[in-house]
Amino acid sequence: MIIETLSWGKLEVHEEQLYHFSKGIPGFEEDTDFALVAMEDSAFWVLQSTENKNLSFLLGDPFAFYPDYEFELPSAEAEELGIASQVIVRCIITLKEKVEESTINLLAPIVLNPEELKGKQVVLHKAPYHTKHSLFQEQPVIDGKDGG
């Protein structure tokens, strides 16, 4: 399948890269189908809407940045995603002009079922995480200091 992207123009993606988010992503509920595209030779992925070339998210493996990161996926969420055994967890990264100020959202990971090709952004209500953890240190960025 060929999809349109803002950054790479036309991009060929394979069926196993296409994930359905039944409720979209919070704030972008109208877009429900995304391609998970690995960025070569890096620990990053792009979650690109297949319907809107202007909508994409930079994702990272939270365990690469925070090896002690853990959470319990609520059973309702696991059931909704049809998770039996395999699961992929990625988190949205916000790049800043000064790279050292970039953040990762550990509070609301993107949970993917690679067997059913379903995905969802799950908000962890009883977790010690924030939406703006530094990529380079184990502390959240103080609101106001990150420029927005």
TrEMBL record:
Transmembrane region(s): none
InterPro entries the UniProt entry points to: Flagellar_assembly_factor_FliW, Flagellar_assmbl_FliW_dom_sf
CC annotations in GO: cytoplasm
Keyword check for Transferase: no
Compartments reported by the entry: Cytoplasm
Family designation: Belongs to the FliW family.
Function of the molecule: Acts as an anti-CsrA protein, binds CsrA and prevents it from repressing translation of its target genes, one of which is flagellin. Binds to flagellin and participates in the assembly of the flagellum.
Protein name: Flagellar assembly factor FliW
Organism: Paenibacillus borealis
Lineage start: Bacteria, Bacillati, Bacillota, Bacilli, Bacillales
Name of the gene encoding the protein in the UniProt record: fliW
